[in-house]
Amino acid sequence: MCQIVMIIPPAQFRDEELFETRVVLEVAGHAVVVASTTTQPCTGMLGGRTTPALTLAEVQPEAFDAVVFVGGAGVQQFYHDERALQLARAMQARGKIVAAICLAPVVLANAGVLTGKQATVSRSEVATIQRHGAHYGGPGVVVDGTIVTGDGPQSARQFGRAIAALLSPVVV
User: Fold this and answer.
1) What is the distance between the alpha carbons of residues 94 and 76, in angstroms, rounded to a whole number?
2) I need a labelling partner for 139 at 20 to 30 A (CA). Which of 88, 104, 120, 124 fits?
3) Do the strands 135-136 and 141-144 form a parallel or antiparallel pair, or are they unpaired?
4) CA distances (Å), origin 60, targets 4, 15, 50
5) What's the rounded Cα separation, in Å, for the pair 49 and 168?
6) Which CATH number fits domain 3-167: 3.90.1150.10, 3.30.460.10, 3.40.1570.10, 3.40.50.880?
7) Mind listing the pLDDT tens digit for each residue in 34-90?
8) How far apart are CA 91 and CA 137, in angstroms?
9) How far apart are CA 58 and CA 148, in angstroms?
10) For the chain, what is the largest distance between any 2 Cα atoms, rounded to a whole number of angstroms?
């Protein structure tokens, strides 16, 4: 069983990208912890609610096997948040899985972890990740080494399966 931290904004995260991805990872036998800028209840774009166990400042990279940045309109607050950028860099430096879906791959691009990597993102941000050195891999889910990116809520389950496949010897 691996430990995964999913990072969400306190408001306007994309529900499917949190809940559907989380279910896939938990069914695969992994433990999932949700973190945000607060430990107060957070609300998704479709009205889903969850209460994070940790704040972003409390996340210790050595305690987790993977970090997953969840998208949605609210994730833009992490685009230049040094704690989020440093977490992505620290996880990559440790050879751990770094994943992001929808708009969230922009966080990885701004952190420098997509430079030279194949990646995907919500269509509106393709040029952004390319400016930071990523190679756009098309829609759906793209895996490049330990980096997993997805283009949006329609890819949430496939995104979860790709992360689980990297964590587990048995494909989910």
Assistant:
1) 25
2) 88
3) unpaired
4) 11, 25, 21
5) 29
6) 3.40.50.880
7) 999 999 999 999 999 999 999 999 999 999 999 999 999 999 999 999 999 999 999
8) 22
9) 23
10) 37
